[in-house]
Every structure is written in C-alpha cells, then in structure tokens.
Specification:
The chain is an alpha+beta fold. It has one domain (2-118). It is built from three helices and two strands. The protein has helices at 2-8, 22-33, 66-80; strands spanning 90-99, 102-114. A two-stranded antiparallel sheet has the order 1-2. A hairpin with a 2-residue loop joins β1 (90-99) and β2 (102-114). The radius of gyration is 17 Å and the shape is globular.
Length: 119
C-alpha cells in the first residue's frame, strides 16, 4: 500500500496510533542514540477480559481471534523496533489455542521471535 501511495503521490499511514505517540518516538530516539546500551530483549503482553461469545472478535468470517484483534499491536510494535536491532524478526516458535466451540479462532497466541542482533 505504501508503494502504491508513493506512485499515486498520496501519503499512506498505518492505523496503529502507538507509532505516532510521543513515548514511542522517544523510545526510538533512545534506542538509536545508544544512550541506554544495546537492546537485549523485547517483551510485550496485551490482555483484556474475554469478550462475550457473540462478539465480532470471535467471528471466523471477520478473521477474528486474539492475534488479529489485539496481538497485531504487540507484533507491530516489536516489528517497528527492527531497525534498532539489526533488521526484521525471525519466527522461532509459535503456540496458540482455539476458542472453545469456535474452530479456527485463536483465543491466545504466544510467539518467540528474534532480531538479527540478538542471535
């Protein structure tokens, strides 16, 4: 989408508001400056009380599930830090559990990823 936006002369931005938050900007400034030393580990956790069974978050046609609903924020946040850690992440291991009664909809996801500079 960004490439198409460039070709069309239109600015395309992500809908992840944390990217534009002053705390995120400062985190990236600190990481780039080396003031805090080298990054050794990044860990994220996002949890909410389980939505009711009829909630759209559990909808297979809407690509529901934990990773699409909330996990995408954690994943996006750590991917945005990749330039500070040597490049794109590599998936090492991932686990997940289905929502009872809703095959194909993940209720939880746990993933281990590594930056190039961490390996």
């Amino acid at each position: 989408m960004q490439d198409e936006g460039k070709r069309a002369g239109v600015k395309v931005v992500h809908g992840f508001r944390h990217l534009y938050h002053p705390v995120t900007k400062r985190l990236h400034e600190l990481g780039a400056s080396g003031e805090l030393g080298e990054m050794e580990r990044v860990e994220t956790l996002v949890m909410i009380p389980p939505p009711p069974p009829e909630d759209r978050r559990w909808s297979v046609p809407l690509a529901g599930g934990a990773l699409m609903d909330l996990g995408c924020y954690s994943l996006h946040a750590i991917r945005a830090m990749a330039p500070l850690a040597g490049g794109n992440l590599t998936l090492i291991n991932a686990r997940g559990g289905e929502r009872t009664g809703l095959p194909g909809v993940d209720e939880w996801v746990d993933a281990d990823l590594v930056y190039p500079s961490f390996s």
